[in-house]
Design goal:
Blueprint (H helix, E strand, L loop, with lengths): L4 E4 L6 E2 L1 H14 L7 H7 L4 H8 L6 H18 L5 E2 L3 H10 L3 E9 H11 L6 E5 L10 H10 L6 E5 L2 H10 L2 E5 L6 H6 L5 E2 L2 H7 L1
Parallel strand pairs: 1-4, 1-6, 4-5, 6-7, 7-8
Antiparallel strand pairs: 2-3
Helix pairs in contact: 1-4, 3-4
């Protein structure tokens, strides 16, 4: 393998979280007498953290106080229900095992709230990552390079020895800003045509193809 560190996005890359995200969004919207959203709408809204997810989900011109309440209700619901339907994509566990057998380090860097990232990784991928980081107040989120740089520093490798694996335009921009290579998967939350239009240069369609690219 040509890389010494593989940094993964979470939602839409290694975990299919869409159904649980949609359910928690709609719980919070309904509780506040707002119209619910479809799966495809929520798919488009994710990628920039849960606050922006909620800001996109509420109707335009919603009062800030209402948005804040929806956000609070979403977090409360998702903290309990984040595992109801969420599961790894096919082949991800085997992929991680194969990477680690090559003595290559692995990390997760996600704009999902850190409490949820830590919980999901602990339950579904315990011991399979050297570094795990979700959105926190003390570090700039993607597409800023800060989170990726933290992973690289923690794992003791060079940027040119690292690759970012994601599924969205945010991930493409993050890798560019971090000055590391990027591989995009097409099984996540964005369509292949959209990814190409947004600068994806290397797109893979299976975990086997991804492993070969590493």
């Amino acid at each position: 393998m040509k890389y010494k560190l593989v940094i993964f996005d979470l939602d839409g890359t290694i975990l299919d979280t869409l159904e649980d995200l949609k359910n928690s969004v709609n719980y919070a919207l309904k509780k506040n007498a707002l119209p619910e959203r479809t799966t495809e709408e929520v798919r488009r809204f994710v990628g920039n953290g849960i606050r922006l997810l909620i800001e996109r989900a509420v109707p335009e011109n919603t009062a800030l106080s209402v948005t804040d309440k929806v956000f609070s209700d979403f977090k409360e619901h998702y903290a309990v229900h984040s595992m109801d339907n969420t599961k790894p994509y096919d082949g991800i566990n085997s992929l991680l095992e194969s990477i680690r057998k090559e003595n290559v380090k692995t990390a997760v860097v996600s704009n999902k709230a850190d409490f949820a990232v830590q919980k999901l990784i602990k339950l579904l991928f315990d011991g399979k990552f050297d570094f795990i980081l979700g959105e926190r107040a003390d570090i700039n989120k993607k597409p800023a390079p800060d989170m990726v740089n933290a992973a690289i520093k923690h794992c003791g490798v060079l940027p040119e020895e690292s690759v970012y694996v994601g599924d969205s335009e945010v991930d493409i921009e993050t890798a560019k800003n971090s000055e590391i290579d990027c591989i995009i998967v097409d099984w996540g939350f964005r369509e292949r045509e959209f990814l190409i239009k947004n600068g994806a240069e290397k797109i893979v369609s299976s975990t086997q193809e991804l492993f070969s690219a590493l």
